[in-house]
Every structure is written in C-alpha cells, then in structure tokens.
C-alpha cells in the first residue's frame, strides 16, 4: 500500500465513512490540532525519560491512546457516527482522578502560573495550550456537527491535567514556579 493516495491533491480529504470535505473543514481543523497535541504529548513523554520523573509515563501513554480515539471521533463523516465508539465516563474519570492526585501534593495558588523554569515544565504548558486550541476547535465543530460531548469534556479535563502536571514537574525538577504579578 502506498502512503500517498493523491486524493487530497485538490484540497479535500475523506472523513471516516467516506465523506469528502475541504481540508479546512472545522472537523479536520479539530482533529489536526488533536494530532498536534498527540505529537507534543509524545515529546513531553520523551523529555521525561531523560529526567528522574518517569512516574507520569503511564499517564501519557493512556492519554496518547485517548487522543487518537478523540481524533477519530472528530473525523466522523455524515452517517458514520456509529463507526467509532464514544469515549466514556471512565476515560474522563481517569483524568479527574490523576488531576486530584497530583493537585493533592501541590501548594495552593491564587494567581496564574507562568510557563517556564525548566524545559520539561515548558513542554507541559505547550501541551496545555495546544489542548486548549484543540478544545476550541472541537467546540466550533460541535456547533455545526454532531460531536461527542465526552470528547469535549475529555479535552477540557486534559488541559487541566497538563496544567497541574506542569506545576508538579516544576516541583520535582526543582524549578521555580513563577506566578503572574498583575
């Protein structure tokens, strides 16, 4: 099987189920940003392997799998909604549980955290911001097409996960947590 099909040479692509849409379709934009988030998450995971904080490795593998699943949900064409099973409460519950566990060891904050302090912390914040963009694009797609509400919830929780992960990594790596001074 060849990697190129030439099907997109004129600026369109196929969704799951065969529907052809322009490459700028809101669903394509949404799953494209989720794909970017998946690559950024892999980069974070690779960066963690060089540090003594591999305890989040399993989280990031689960998240990578759930991101691929979420991409598939964004790529459903008209009439193919039954071709990919929806995310479920356990998928979202996994993130909520991990957010709670990580938050339990963090000092409370009253101001926004600025990204930075260590390259790994910055990468966690890159994941957070790409996730927020993907969520906005998924919400835009949901305004026009039937998009899984669980996928939207997952993306919302995932950005929160990356936020607390960045704070926890700063603590573990001895990086100063820089708070915004209004």
TrEMBL record:
Gene3D superfamilies: Cobalamin adenosyltransferase-like (1.20.1200.10). Pathway: Cofactor biosynthesis; adenosylcobalamin biosynthesis; adenosylcobalamin from cob(II)yrinate a,c-diamide: step 2/7. Keywords: ATP-binding, Cobalamin biosynthesis, Nucleotide-binding, Transferase. Belongs to the Cob(I)alamin adenosyltransferase family. Transmembrane segments: none annotated. It catalyses: 2 cob(II)alamin + reduced [electron-transfer flavoprotein] + 2 ATP = 2 adenosylcob(III)alamin + 2 triphosphate + oxidized [electron-transfer flavoprotein] + 3 H(+); 2 cob(II)yrinate a,c diamide + reduced [electron-transfer flavoprotein] + 2 ATP = 2 adenosylcob(III)yrinate a,c-diamide + 2 triphosphate + oxidized [electron-transfer flavoprotein] + 3 H(+). Its EC number is 2.5.1.17. This is Corrinoid adenosyltransferase. It comes from the Bacteria. Residues 3-168 form the Cobalamin adenosyltransferase-like domain.
